[in-house]
Amino acid sequence: MLNSKRLIFLVFSTFLAWQTSFAFDELIDNPNYxxxxxxxxxxxxxxxxxxxxxxxxxVLGDLTYTLAELTPEKVVVEMTQTIFLSDxxxxxxxxxxxxxxxxKKADSGSVKQLSPAPDESDEEIEVPAGKFKCxxxxxxxxxxxxxxxxxxxxxxxxxxxxxxxxxxxxxxxxSTTSIVLVQVVKP
Length: 187
Hints:
Elements: H1 4-25, E1 27-29, H2 31-36, E2 44-53, E3 56-70, E4 74-85, E5 88-100, E6 102-104, E7 119-127, E8 130-143, E9 146-154, E10 162-171, E11 175-185
Antiparallel strand pairs: 1-6, 2-3, 2-11, 3-4, 4-5, 7-8, 8-9, 9-10, 10-11
């Protein structure tokens, strides 16, 4: 027979495990849904991917995101991508991204930590689509012999929030690539 201290410990441990399981199943607002749901179906966001070759900036491709469906439960965003390689143009089939209105808190990234923590700042930047006040996040990483840093500028008033993303690779080969906002078309 269990003594009273063990019984209390067992009941408390079971209750704690039960509460913890609910915390990981707790639903929260999905930031991607929240951002896209502020816009009308048919909203288009266009980006250009640019890089450097022989010290000159070159266009590597185009990305287009279109808000295809909006319901209280989800948004569907279609993506088209064109890649420019030398004299060839490669168009990829459309793909769709679906963002549910709610996601599990455990899936939100709120429990993940970057190490080291990224640098954050508020900056105004200019891209082909115009000037934007942005929140910037910058981090450096090393992975399987590669050394790179990434800086992302975002603005919640832009569908998808991305204004610019720049990645600088130091190793194994020095390069810079960016994705920049070119145009937002609202129906």
